[in-house]
Amino acid sequence: MTATKSRARAGGRGRPSKAKGLDLKETILDAAEGLFARHGFYGVTTRQVAAEAGVDTALIHYYFGAKRELFDAVFLRRAEILNQAREASMNAYVKANAGAMTVEGVIEAFIDPLLRISQDGGRGWKSYFVLVAQVNNTPAWGGETMTRFFDPVVHQLVETLKTVRPEAAYRDLYWCYQFLTGSMMLTLSETGRIDSLSEGECHSSDLESVRQRLFAYCAAGFEAVIAKQNKALASG
Amino acid sequence: MTATKSRARAGGRGRPSKAKGLDLKETILDAAEGLFARHGFYGVTTRQVAAEAGVDTALIHYYFGAKRELFDAVFLRRAEILNQAREASMNAYVKANAGAMTVEGVIEAFIDPLLRISQDGGRGWKSYFVLVAQVNNTPAWGGETMTRFFDPVVHQLVETLKTVRPEAAYRDLYWCYQFLTGSMMLTLSETGRIDSLSEGECHSSDLESVRQRLFAYCAAGFEAVIAKQNKALASG
DNA sequence: GCCCTTTTTCATCAGGTGATGAAAAATGAA
DNA sequence: TTCATTTTTCATCACCTGATGAAAAAGGGC
């Protein structure tokens, strides 16, 4: 009876799944992604999404159910890809540098996949990062969403860092991760604020400049905090 | 004819400004602030604000005009206070340490006022920081708003840092500022994400722990980026 | 061509939205 | 008290919101 039951499911008799419908689903997701990123969940109406995608409003509910489920579908579509890329990157780094890992190396392995995807992945990915940054700053339900999708890879980061710096306390690693993710999210969402602020010296789309600075910045931050807190602990 | 003209203005004959109305205005702003922070501009209706404030819906339009003007009023109310506190803090630091300023000292003077206000200022200020973080991540109109209100004090920060490290390029200082502000905003908005992520090791409301780490983290980041970029420049 | 299924469209609902104008109440100087 | 003025309430408008059910169209195995 509910919208959920009317959702499309493959495997009947009529049409086995050659499916123009899949293309349409993607078109809808693309439209929704761009609009949600620009205006937020409540700032977008299903009619706007339908218009942008060039489909009937009812079709959105047919494929995705409620508006919120559409949003979740948008979020989910790329989250998995992102997680796999990061996990693979970190595993590769650990494997290649087993004996000689550095804090900066681990951090680079954690962040760089996102920068690369943002550079090579086209407009869709840029919108997606804006969306994630937005969810990250949504008190009402953003935390739960972020936790559900991104906690595992964060724990992997922290554990790897712990093996590189066994003397570091988890408290410090988690605080530093929070600082790192704040910088990273703001940078990936490419708000353009740095462009006007720096009066042309910097461009938010210039991810190569980011790469040359962000890893070193965060790594030095981690090292400084670890050193300072351990020193305080020793003398306290 | 428009709502703007019906706005309250003091100085007529009837009531000179002893004004219960001013209290009501503040009540409305408080209610709006909390709701906007939690759910965003589009996630809140004027009726919700009115209900939360315990006033008639029409009263909101009477005092503030359109919904967006109400939002601007919320944003503006504390922005000025914030700017003055930061400017005063930085001026005081420069004056007190004229000959021996450090990067970390300048950064502390820039960030610490916000931490103190958040700790001492009550629930209203906490909501406000969430609001600012949200605006900071709103592509459509957030950048313009942030620029209008907060650019001056940022330039003051950058210029001060430039006097401490004259060899640093503005490019690097602006990039590092972006990293810093990302960390700072995420931390000030106290999303609670670090609480669940760290499984109880850290608490987002524990700003004393932030103080012990964030300044050192950012300062080390700045120093590392400056050193690295200058080294690259020299050898390139 | 038939027939069952999936996909797409159309018309519409119940409720909520921001906003306004007019009336009522409150206020305080004269 | 009078009365111009401000503040508050009330009723309402025109429009938009998410969502749904029924009908129409499209597909493809047989």
From TrEMBL, chains A, B:
Keywords: DNA-binding, Transcription, Transcription regulation. Signal peptide: none annotated. It comes from the Bacteria. GO terms for molecular function: DNA-binding transcription factor activity; transcription cis-regulatory region binding. Residues 45-64 bind DNA. Residues 22-82 form the HTH tetR-type domain. InterPro entries: Homeodomain-like_sf, HTH-type_TetR-like_transc_reg, HTH_TetR, PsrA_TetR_C, Tet_transcr_reg_TetR-rel_C_sf. Pfam families: TetR_C_30, TetR_N. This is TetR-family transcriptional regulator.
